[in-house]
Amino acid sequence: MRKLNSSDSNFYSSLDELLSFDATLSPEIESRVAAILADIKSRGDAAVIEYTNRFDRREVKEIGELEVSQEELKAAFDRLPSHEQQALQTACERVRKYHQHQKQASWQYTDEDGTLLGQQITPLDRVGIYVPGGTAAYPSSVLMNAIPAHVAGVPEIIMVSPLRGGAEQDRVMGAAWLAGVTRIFTIGGAQAVAALAFGTETIPAVDKITGPGNAYVAAAKRQVFGQVGIDMVAGPSEILVICDGKTNPDWVAIDLFSQAEHDEVAQAILLCPDEAYITAVEQSIEKLLPEMPRAEIIRTSLKNRGALIKVADLDDACAIANRIAPEHLELSVEEPTLLAAKIRHAGAIFMGAFTSESLGDYCAGPNHVLPTARSARFSSPLGVYDFQKRSSLICVSPDGAHALGQVADILATGEGLPAHALAARLRVRTE
Ligand SMILES: NC(=O)c1ccc[n+]([C@@H]2O[C@H](COP(=O)([O-])OP(=O)(O)OC[C@H]3O[C@@H](n4cnc5c(N)ncnc54)[C@H](O)[C@@H]3O)[C@@H](O)[C@H]2O)c1
Ligand SMILES: N[C@H](CO)Cc1c[nH]c[nH+]1
Ligand SMILES: [Zn+2]
User: Fold this and answer.
1) Which residues have a catalytic role annotated?
2) Domains of the chain (ranges plus CATH)?
3) If you measure from the C-alpha of residue 301 to the centroid of ligand 3, how many angstroms do you get, rounded to a whole number?
4) Is ipTM beyond 0.90?
5) pTM for the whole thing?
6) For the chain, what percent of residues have pLDDT higher than 90?
7) Ligand 1, pocket-test mutation among 25, 138, 216, 231, most atoms within 8 A of CB
8) Cβ < 6 Å from ligand 1: which residues?
9) Does residue 151 sit in helix, strand or coil?
10) Using CA atoms, how far apart are residues 131 and 127, in angstroms rounded to an integer?
């Protein structure tokens, strides 16, 4: 794992090099995905079956074999051991409660001329949620995508995931049942995104597609954007820990592992002003890594995109954190509130040594679908607002038409648009 010092002259170029990685962009994948999208668009169900058989090594003959009924979802939930059912239910309730706070309401006001102005909020009609399933299928990702859609009042939630059967499938399907998913198709990759975007004879076209996935899914989402809405293009997981040197170093080491274990290009970084503490975390990493079941993935990820960084002080750490704009930021310090006020760019901020990022992945309540690859500079966690739309409301009174008509007349004439000007002027009182 690389060690850096923020006072070194080449520090920012080393940091920028570490951050420049983008696992979701590859010209070769972009062109393969374009071909898959075009094929699904023209051949529908038949192409979905072919790609599913090829990429997910299945032997499907009829499209109906790819849909899972509500009865099967309920049966999957019922098959889970009771402690797993309870854990899913607790997570579901907490995530729902948190997201209920995000629900936007319509508003309006009347101005001095009696003109009503406002904003009307409506849910999307039909959304598609992508739940990754190639290497591992996460039930928590089902909850994090479906619950905000449900809270927003979306009537139809269509889920796709390349499920592979077994207990893992029961967990994902059980979570889908709990979260109120309307229909599920066991398809994945670019073909699933295309089916949701364009619709097929069987799979309904949706208005927006949300959820993370691999480079094929990311490329497909990018390419269908415009035909449908998308939430974001989520890349590999990231964790940044700012520590004042007072947290048990084993806790920090394991928190770094918790995102590094997602995949070999996950990013895990520690910022700390205390050199001796950085050495202690390094020792914890060496001691604990061999015991981890996913040690090989963690080791590669830490080698590729891990860093232990000595900073001048905690203010310096905050400035560097804002440059990194991480998906997850842990403030493992005694006074996290003071530091949080200095953070402008982070998907989620975990405050204090007891707030491990992993609690946020499952059950704290906030969403775990978060901006990655520095996009926290301009985007936000997946939320209820992603499943709601806003329409402006304007109801002009006769007095309002008289006053505003004169203003619009002048502005429209200045823009060289006479029909606009006349439409405004016709409603202006002449006597
Ligand atoms: N940000 C988050 O909240 C979050 C949560 C869970 C997972 N993830 C990320 O999602 C990703 C999941 O990736 P995954 O692969 O396990 O599952 P996935 O479901 O995203 O992708 C599997 C699909 O990829 C397609 N595919 C695979 N190889 C292909 C090829 N050669 N040509 C065309 N298509 C091909 C197949 O159709 C397959 O169904 C990981 O990077 C993981 O870190 C992120
Ligand atoms: N940390 C991931 C998002 O970056 C989400 C996740 C799902 N399961 C465990 N973790
Ligand atoms: Zn995670």
Assistant:
1) 327-328
2) 2-23+235-364 (3.40.50.1980), 27-104+122-230 (3.40.50.1980), 396-425 (no CATH)
3) 14
4) yes
5) 0.95
6) 92
7) 216
8) 32, 55-56, 132-135, 138, 141, 162, 188-190, 212-214, 216-217, 234, 236-237, 262-263, 368-369
9) helix
10) 13
